[in-house]
Amino acid sequence: MLAVSAVAAVAALTVLPRLGGVVSTGAPGAHGATIERFDVHSRYVHDTLPQVAAAPAGGGAGRPLLVFLHGRGGRGPESDSNAAFYAALGKLGDRAPNVLFANGGDHSYYHRRGSGDWNRYMLDEVIPEAVRRLHADPKRIAIGGISMGGFGAYQLARQRPRTFCAVGGHSAALWRAGGETPAGAFDDARDFARNDLIALSRARGRAPWGRARLWLDGGTGDPFRSAGDAFAAALHIPMHHWPGGHDGSYWRAHYVRYLRFYAAALARC
Predict the structure, then answer these.
(1) Alpha-carbon span 30 to 90, nearest angstrom
(2) Contact of 102 with 67, CB cutoff 8 Å
(3) Which among 21, 58, 94, 144 is most buried, taking Cβ atoms within 10 Å?
(4) What is the pLDDT of residues 181-198, one digit of tens each?
(5) What backbone phi and psi angles, to 5 degrees, belong to 52?
(6) What is the pTM of this model?
(7) In the chain, what are the domain boundaries?
(8) Distance CA 54, CA 34 (A)
(9) Which helix (DSSP H) or strand (DSSP E) does residue 90 occupy?
(10) Which CATH number is correct for 6-267, 3.30.230.70, 2.40.240.10, 3.40.50.1820, 1.10.540.10?
(11) Averaged pLDDT for residues 18-26
């Protein structure tokens, strides 16, 4: 198992999702959004996992879809389904996308591994089910996430670069070497090497992500700052820094910026 470092400890921040089952639907949310909770019965990760989807005020039919991935531990897909996020979504007006708060389990890091094929679960089960339920435009999809979810967004988008118009990592959990990673993030050294985004970007630049618009940000006090800077440099994109650490107060303060980025990219899909 890979060693744990001080940086890795912060990455211990994500939760769990059935294909097609409904938990609750049409529940009114903040700022006019309509919240739907449904389960995905997954053949790829052999589990039933709850998801959260939100249609903005005015309804979701024909609108694009933003897939937003949570960090490790915590409340999973409920982590960012909060008043601050919906307030930011409401500011977009007619440009607001549908949002899927997908469930990545406690520490899947959204990649194929011993616990299951989290790539196929997300790409072939969860996202298509959300598109169907929300009547979203399947040709206009963006993906982003926080911490583990930021890593996952870039990891998933490289598997299907033509699927996503934009990719965002907010305080993305990134490491320069396998020995820096926390227990559970990867199965072993070979698993890390197969999913080393910094090494991949240094070798191939932004090519694995096709024409998608790319975004990275993190707090000035975030322990992943150095690795994030290295990833951004290899991708030849800006790394946005604002005061703050690796915590909810930092992310909530920048939801508006994040959603404006996704809305602009989706408008150009």
Answers:
(1) 9
(2) yes
(3) 144
(4) 999 999 999 999 999 999
(5) -125, 130
(6) 0.90
(7) 6-267
(8) 5
(9) helix 83-90
(10) 3.40.50.1820
(11) 52
